[in-house]
Amino acid sequence: MYTTSQHRSTAQTTTTADPTFGVTVALAVAPLVIFVALSYAAFTAVFAVGVLTTLAVSFVRRRLSETTRRRKAGFDRATRA
User: Please, what's the b/e burial string for 6-44 (b: 16 or more CB within 10 A of its CB; e: otherwise)?
Assistant: First the structure.
């Protein structure tokens, strides 16, 4: 059984928080946050390039198709006349 003085001594003994703990956690988490941000930026860039490339290919194919159709129609008219 504890005496009154023992209770007081244990109650007064508290662990103080490490003032550098927040900095330590920030330094430990910072590389992960940077990695996630860069990964997201890279994914967004690759996605944007993919969308733009798809649109460009679609546009070029359409233009080539129209040009081919016009040339064929012109050739057909020329050979019929």
Answer: eeeeeeeeeeeeeeeeeeeeeeeeeeeeeeeeeeeeeee
For 2-22, how does the pLDDT look when each residue is reduced to its tens digit (9 = 90+)?
Answer: 555 555 555 555 566 777 888
Range list of H helices, the chain: 4-12, 21-80
Provide the token pair at 44: 């967004």
Residue at token pair 């005496």: 3
| Residue bearing tokens 């020329």 | 78
Q: pTM score, two decimals? A: 0.54
